[in-house]
Design goal:
5-stranded mixed sheet; alpha+beta; Beta Polymerase, domain 2; 2 domains
């Protein structure tokens, strides 16, 4: 390990929390990190309930989830974040197997969205377009709410996993540049309502039925 700060974090998790399996995930694992990228870590130890450690470290932040070791043999949707993860410490090959299961979960995709839920997402987006016109605090809130929800809704409506904004926008840039451009236009501060309507159209069009 050629990162002294990461080594110090691992040593602390082992010594102070009894972690025996530790996986680095996110940008510092997949090679897309910048100098200020978080250290995103999943650790497993003989504890009763999951706990989280967050704090500044150097010029960035630490975000660690410590899970009960029993969860090493499970693959909840939450563990999609471990796709492409780098195993730093493991017991009995458990870290490698966990990352492989996360990869298989990604490839399998989510359960199909039932028709009524699909229709509800569509109707909700159109309803927010109307209600954001109020011009008061609630209307502005609904505008921001709509903009936040449209990205995960894009993926959900197409039968794809939503994996957070960074990976999602990178995927859109490569697979749906029209939708990517629509998101960029609508999310630009001070964007007109027409840009948001165009984004709603882009999200609700071309879905997987």
């Amino acid at each position: 390990m050629n990162d002294p700060l990461l080594q110090a974090i691992v040593d602390e998790l082992v010594a102070s929390h009894g972690a025996h399996t530790i996986v680095l995930y996110g940008s510092r694992a997949d090679g897309s990190a910048s100098a200020g990228s978080d250290y995103d870590i999943a650790a497993f130890a003989a504890i009763e309930r999951a706990t989280r450690i967050t704090r500044p470290v150097g010029d960035t932040f630490l975000d660690v989830f410590i899970y009960p070791e029993a969860q090493l043999e499970t693959t909840p949707v939450e563990f999609l974040k471990l796709v492409g993860g780098r195993v730093l410490v493991e017991r009995d090959d458990a870290g490698r197997r966990l990352v492989e299961r996360a990869d298989r979960l990604l490839q399998a995709g989510p359960e199909p969205l039932p028709p009524d839920e699909r229709r509800a997402l569509q109707d909700w987006a159109r309803k927010m377009l109307v209600r954001m016109q109020r011009g008061d605090a609630e209307g502005h809130y609904r505008r921001a709410w709509l903009l936040m929800e449209l990205l995960p809704d894009y993926f959900q409506l197409r039968g794809l996993w939503y994996r957070g904004p960074k990976k999602s926008f990178a995927w859109l840039a490569g697979h749906d540049p029209v939708a990517h451009a629509a998101f960029l236009a609508a999310l630009t501060p001070g964007a007109p309502d027409e840009a948001i309507r165009a984004l709603v159209d882009a999200v609700l069009s071309g879905q997987t039925d």
